[in-house]
Design brief:
By secondary structure, the chain is α+β, with helices and mostly antiparallel strands. The chain folds into two domains: 113 residues, no CATH class; 73 residues, no CATH class. The chain contains seven helices and six strands, in the order βββααααααβββα. A three-stranded antiparallel β-sheet has the order 1-2-3. Strands 4-5-6 form a three-stranded antiparallel β-sheet, sandwiched between helices. Helix 1 packs across helix 3 and helix 1 runs parallel beside helix 4. The longest helix is centred in the N-terminal third of the chain and has 27 residues. The N and C termini lie far apart (57 Å). The chain binds zinc ion. Zinc ion binds next to loops.
């Protein structure tokens, strides 16, 4: 239903305006959508006009989501991951990801693509029937890759310390970028004062 007067003060001194509103996808990718509003020139109240905005928002969101999925697929492809493999690993019907790229996907599809986008190796775990030992191995391998990657990069500093006693083995690794801690690995920081101090220093 079209509104012709201000719902707050009933004034007819109103104006239709189209404004652009910003929003963000789960990874922070910004997108904008057109938003029609009724501005009351007497009391400054801004009112959403006859629910058209829901449609505008959904269309803009759908389009942004397709681009988002497309970008994740390109990144995965550049890293050598095939969409066919990812579909097989997660037991998705063939060409599901292609359909998501061209027709958009549900919130659960977006969640899966977001996770696989930053952790493609999750597909390997799925491919091994979610085996716990394989999963643990992947996590350790990826943590190792992160530490090695940071240790060999120019703008990161890495500290790795291993404490072993008869009773326990503790590994502490910290990655710092621009003097700020960006990742800390610690097996059991709270069990020993020295280890705890070291852990807190790395976290600082
Ligand atoms: Zn008003």
């Amino acid at each position: 239903m079209k509104i012709n007067n201000c719902p707050f003060c009933s004034s007819e001194n109103v104006e239709n305006r189209t404004i652009e509103k910003p929003d963000k996808l789960p990874d922070g990718t910004p997108f904008k959508y057109k938003y029609e509003v009724l501005v009351c020139l007497d009391c400054d109240t801004i009112t959403d006009v006859d629910k058209k905005n829901d449609t505008a928002y959904l269309a803009a969101h759908e389009s942004a989501k397709k681009q988002y999925v497309d970008k994740i697929c390109q990144d995965l492809s550049n890293k050598g991951w095939s969409m066919a493999y990812i579909e097989r690993a997660f037991r998705l019907p063939q060409r599901t990801i292609t359909r998501w790229k061209s027709q958009g996907c549900s919130a659960s599809g977006m969640a899966l693509m977001s996770l696989v986008g930053i952790m493609p190796w999750l597909a390997k775990i799925a491919d091994h029937n979610y085996d716990q030992a394989i999963a643990a191995g992947e996590v350790i391998a990826q943590a190792g890759n992160l530490i090695v990657g940071a240790a060999t990069s120019n703008d990161c500093t890495t500290t790795v310390k291993i404490y072993s006693s008869e009773k326990s083995l503790n590994i502490i690794a910290g990655i710092h970028k621009n003097q700020k801690s960006c990742a800390i690995l610690s097996t059991e920081p709270q069990t020993d004062n020295i280890i705890n101090t070291e852990y807190e220093l790395l976290r600082a």
